[in-house]
């Protein structure tokens, strides 16, 4: 049974198990142990977001990797997709990103990538976890002369900037955009990239202090972005999250444009150009039924996976699909990247605005959204549903009543001690009723 890795690496409160300096040291040792089986000197690319605890974890991880003879290329604050790209382009054996993505500054985490830039397969994570929990890891057999070295990769920013700009084939000279970087990993990169391509940029969330990442800003909090778009009469607003692997837009009216709309509008354009592989998009069970109906009407098949961008990517790789993602803003373009990349996704949308001559509100109007509500409730424990009595009954009753005109999803978060409740239906009143009833049941059985 897995005890450390969740759906997106290892996560938790900084300085609390498992996000401690001691555990980071062991993660470094175990990672080096798993990847250093070939007998050659191995290398890891190591990046982080802007959390204060990143300094502690970066130092501990580096020490663990070096003690086992691995070299470390430190890139400092850098988006998660940049670390994935640099791992592949630098021919490193693995990549490590210190981040808790969209979570508050008090949290942190460790994500790992294979040499190809994709997230580690479950079996490799389990092997690393086995070594960590075994308590037998030591570096006694590494002589002093074989200890690894750490280097600062000084041109990491430039390498990623050129990579991120490569999918954009037009100048953005006529666009005025507001960019909210969530005081996170892309605080200096995103505005620079958009400006280099010609856009007029209004910056927000670009002054990280170690504790303000995602603090009422970024992809989870687009309210300020919406306000700034209207105040500056911008063409659109772009909100990244803490590690810049997801993006949410606001149109010229300040209305939110989420991942479903982004995926749909870009899939329609790719199909029109004959570039949509197998005429298929991949989404999770959280995507709105309105997207499914719009895609079906356009002759586009929708593949559905479990919640989590790793599952979307796995399905895309299995079948050579080239666009997929999540309603939350993880958008994957497999023709360009191995993971969600908020900056590249934003450039795709801005390029479509320029080439089509349409406003973002018009591009996003291809679908009619079903009323939907998502609530998160903190829980002390994640009791398996088959051990509960009332909640499964209410879920079944809700599904029966909504039938084909709605749905509900109740699941535990893979990254936090929370349970997520989603209800979607043709009528807003049905959504409110069943969401209230499900949440009341959750509180009764799990709090």
Oligomeric status of the shown chains?
Answer: single chain
Q: What spatial order of strands do you see in the largest sheet? A: 1-5-4-2-3-6
In terms of structural class, how would the helical and strand content be classed? alpha/beta
Radius of gyration, in Å, reads 22 Å
SS strand fraction: 15-25%
Largest sheet: 6 strands, mixed
Provide the low-confidence segments as ranges.
none
How are the SSEs ordered, and which strands pair?
Blueprint lengths: L9 E4 L7 H15 L7 E6 L4 H15 L3 E7 L2 H10 L4 E5 L8 E8 L7 H13 L15 E3 L3 H10 L10 E5 L8 H8 L3 E5 L18 H10 L3 E5 L6 E4 L5 E2 L1 H14 L7 E5 L4 H9 L3 E5 L3 H11 L4 E2 L5 E2 L9 H15 L3 H4 L8 E7 L11 H13 L3 E7 L5 E8 L2 H19 L1
Parallel strand pairs: 2-3, 2-4, 3-6, 7-8, 7-9, 12-13, 12-14
Antiparallel strand pairs: 1-5, 4-5, 9-10, 10-11, 14-15, 16-18, 17-18
Question: Could you explain how this protein is built, in words?
Answer:
Helix 1 crosses helix 4. Strands 1-5-4-2-3-6 form a six-stranded mixed sheet, sandwiched between helices. It starts with 9 loop residues before the first strand and ends with a helix. The chain is of the alpha/beta class and about 450 residues long. It contains 14 helices and 18 strands. The relative contact order is 0.11.
Provide a concise account of the structure shown.
With 447 residues, the protein is α/β, with parallel strands linked by helices. It is built from 14 helices and 18 strands.
Key features?
447 residues; alpha/beta; five-stranded mixed sheet; 14 helices; 37% helix; 20% strand; globular
